[in-house]
Design goal:
Elements (H helix, E strand, L loop, with lengths): L6 H7 L4 E5 L17 E5 L8 H4 L7 E5 L6 E4 L9 E5 L6 E4 L9 E5 L19 E5 L3 H8 L4 H6 L5 E8 L2 E6 L4
Parallel strand pairs: 1-2, 2-3, 3-5, 4-6, 5-7, 7-8, 8-9
Antiparallel strand pairs: 9-10
Length: 186
């Protein structure tokens, strides 16, 4: 499948502020790196096998990223210097994701992180303590191993990594709907 855009269209794409793609891609289109005005991006059902962060991390105005069933890889690494203006990150239904890493200097303005339906992620993102501006962490339908570590008596090391976050919400889907609770502060 050809994901190229005619060069005559590329200049008008530079002013594009929102991009929503709900389709199978397998790899990120190369032209995405040219979207310098992009503020929000929403990728769903993409089936990406390559890490989508490589194409998105240096877009200078990106404030919100949503990935829903968009990536089939085992890991995501948010590299130092990447996503400098990002404030909201939503990662949902990434069924193969086993690990996440946040390098110091990545996403320095991130305020909200939502992780939902990532069953193989059994630990908090390595380096989550580097997200000093993070105000809200929402964990919905995550592995019981991850949640148990956060709720263990005394908090443990996992809790210490998120102690700076003002609001940590743990949600599980039950027969009655979403059961949400605020993780108590120690």
């Amino acid at each position: 499948m050809d994901h190229s855009i005619p060069s005559s269209s590329s200049s008008s794409l530079q002013s594009l502020r929102m991009l929503a793609l709900s389709c199978r891609l397998e790899k990120m289109p190369q032209w995405i790196t040219c979207l310098q005005g992009l503020v929000r991006t929403y990728l769903k059902w993409s089936g990406l096998r390559q890490d989508p962060l490589e194409s998105l991390q240096h877009l200078p105005n990106l404030v919100q990223v949503t990935l829903i069933q968009a990536y089939q890889g085992e890991g995501l690494c948010f590299k130092a210097g990447g996503f400098q203006k990002l404030k909201e990150l939503y990662l949902e239904e990434l069924k193969e994701l086993r690990w996440m890493r946040v390098e110091d200097g990545a996403m320095p303005r991130l305020q909200q992180l939502n992780l939902q339906g990532i069953p193989l992620l059994e630990e908090l993102p390595l380096g989550i303590q580097h997200l000093r501006q993070l105000q809200k962490l929402d964990l919905a339908d995550m592995s019981s191993q991850l949640i148990d570590k956060l709720e263990s008596e005394g908090g443990g090391q996992d809790y210490q990594q998120i102690a700076h976050i003002h609001q940590v919400i743990i949600s599980r889907w039950t027969d009655e709907g979403w059961n949400e609770r605020l993780l108590s502060r120690k």
